[in-house]
Amino acid sequence: MKSIVFIFTAFFAVSTSCCAQRAKTYNWSWKTDGAILAGSMAGYAGSQSLKSQAQQATYEDIINLDGNRVWGFDRGAIKNYSYSAASLSDLFLYGSLSVPLIAHFDKGVKNEKGAVLGMMFESLLINQSITNSLKATTHRYRPYTYNTALSEDITVNPTAKQSFISGHTSSVATATFFTAKVLTDLHPESKLKPLIWASAIVIPATTGYLRYRAGKHFPSDIIAGYGVGALVGFFVPHFHKIKIKNRDVNLDLGSVSGGGLGFSFSLVLD
Q1: Which residues lie below 8 Å from residue 196, measured CB to CB, with a gap of 6+?
Q2: Residue 250, number of CB atoms within 10 A of its CB
Q3: Stretch 42-52: mean pLDDT
Q4: 28 lies in a domain?
Q5: 256 and 28 Cβ atoms separated by less than 8 Å
Q6: How far apart are CA 12 and CA 163, in angstroms?
Q7: Which terminus of the chain, N or C, has less C-beta within 10 A?
Q8: Which bin fits 245, alpha (ψ -120 to 50), beta or left (φ > 0)?
Q9: Phi and psi of 239, rounded to 5°?
Q10: Residue 222 pLDDT > 80, yes or no?
């Protein structure tokens, strides 16, 4: 637990240690980004509905599974099952959802708080839309469903066929990569950049390992989830970034002064 506390403490320390004031970093347009947010919210709602309506596994389905038909790269996960690892991965997940707020309250944000908060919502919604859609359409059985040593109460449940991709890993990767990208955009000369990115990489990787130990996901589920989350978390702020001194090539989405967000949403994850 000490390592977990250190990693999250390191992220929070960045918000108070980086202090160089910068000019405006991100473009935010309610015309463009309002449409993106609306589309992302609709995508999230639709994917959540699709996921909830997906066909569930039956006892007959479970007892007929053959672990020898699982790809060799993934087969090692079949015998895993740990309630404590699953619970710890939940702590990583719900703790990570507050991590992007570090960037929102960073001293260098100033008049861009609305943009950073908006990008955060875009990132989380886009990632969750992709994750839910894949879970609902791939119908992949979780590793523990192949474990004949487990009882029916454990193996037969509503999410037994929602293994691909790892939602915990994708969500944590989105949060940490988004935070790392924004903080390093705001403070490009900071000496803390290696620590910021190391934390962004290690936290979702640790989450993925815990999901593997818990028997919830195959390695390929975790790798795919990590990739989706990292790409979304990195590129949403990247595509909003203003081009400065030809240092970066980014999409120009327009800009507005001030602005904020006044809506909320809940994530249903497993």
Answers
A1: 11, 14, 179, 180, 183, 184, 190
A2: 16
A3: 95
A4: no
A5: yes
A6: 32
A7: N
A8: left
A9: -75, -10
A10: yes
**Model confidence pLDDT, tens digit, residues 145-191:** 999 999 999 999 999 999 999 999 999 999 999 999 999 999 999 99
Question: Residue 154: which residues within 8 A CB-CB, separation 6 or more?
Answer: 81, 144
> Can you give the residue range of the structural domain that contains 120?
37-238
- Give the pTM: 0.83
Residue 243 covered by a domain? no
Q: Which long-range contacts (CB under 8 A, 24 or more apart) does 159-163 make?
A: 159/270, 160/56, 160/57, 160/62, 161/54, 161/55, 161/56, 161/57, 162/51, 162/54, 162/135, 162/136, 162/270, 163/135, 163/138, 163/216, 163/217, 163/218, 163/221
Q: Does residue 143 form part of some domain?
A: yes
> Is residue 21 over pLDDT 50?
no
What's residue 191's pLDDT?
95
Q: Which helix (H) or strand (E) holds 170?
A: helix 167-186
Reduced to 3 DSSP states, what percent helix, strand and coil does the chain have, rounded to the nearest 5?
A: 60, 0, 35
Contacts within 8 Å (CB) and 24+ apart, 57-61: 57/141, 57/145, 57/156, 57/157, 57/160, 57/161, 58/156, 59/152, 59/156
Distance from chain centroid for Cα 92: 11
Residue 101 lies in a domain: yes
Q: What pLDDT score was predicted for residue 84?
A: 98
The crossing angle, in degrees rounded to 10, of helices 83-96 and 2-17 is 10
The amino acid at residue 55 is Q
In the chain, the number of structural domains is 1
Return the biggest CA–CA distance within the chain: 63
| Residue 62 contacts residue 155 (beta carbons within 8 Å) | yes
pLDDT tens column, 70-98? 999 999 999 999 999 999 999 999 999 88
pLDDT at 255 over 50: no
